[in-house]
Amino acid sequence: MALISLTFLVILLTIFCLSGMVEPACRRCSRSRAFVEKQCEATLYTRLCIQGLLPFVNSRIQTQQQLAQVALSSVKEFRQMSVDGEKQFLWHESNVQSWVSAALTDATACIDGFSTYSINSRVKATIKAKVLNVAQVTSNALALFNGYTARQRASFRAKKP
């Protein structure tokens, strides 16, 4: 009995010590987490947005641009926006919006297209759920991107005399 109590006490003390070491790292991430949660409020699928971006939360995600880059990590055009600057910004913005909107339309068309095929209902439901998830994540990425570009365009206007 004494051995069990001692073991329990050691485990309890270890947990308390480790939580003391982890706490400062969590505080650093809390600002980034709050930022992600605030930005995701502008999306249609807020909870999905937060869940999808939280794994990337660290002390570096503190701007709309960084958040949009994570959400659109596979879109090379987005990375080019920061390189080309203000002169080509609207052109790149239009390209990204067109491609992401097309992906969203394709996902919706894909879901609609399943109604014409005779497929096992369980398989059909699984495929529809996966495609719907892609559509929702795409919608969120587009909303985050649009929030970033709106703010960026406003800063360009503010710089002009």
From TrEMBL:
Report the Gene3D superfamilies cross-referenced here: Invertase/pectin methylesterase inhibitor family protein
Is Glycoprotein set as a keyword in this record? no
Record protein name field: Pectinesterase inhibitor domain-containing protein
Q: Which UniProt keywords apply?
A: Signal
Recorded GO molecular functions are: enzyme inhibitor activity
The protein's matches in InterPro entries, at most eight in alphabetical order, are given as:
Invertase/methylesterase_inhib, Pectinesterase_inhib_dom, PME_Inhibitor
Q: Which residues form the Pectinesterase inhibitor domain?
A: 31-144
Region forming the signal peptide: 1-24
UniProt key word Coiled coil? no
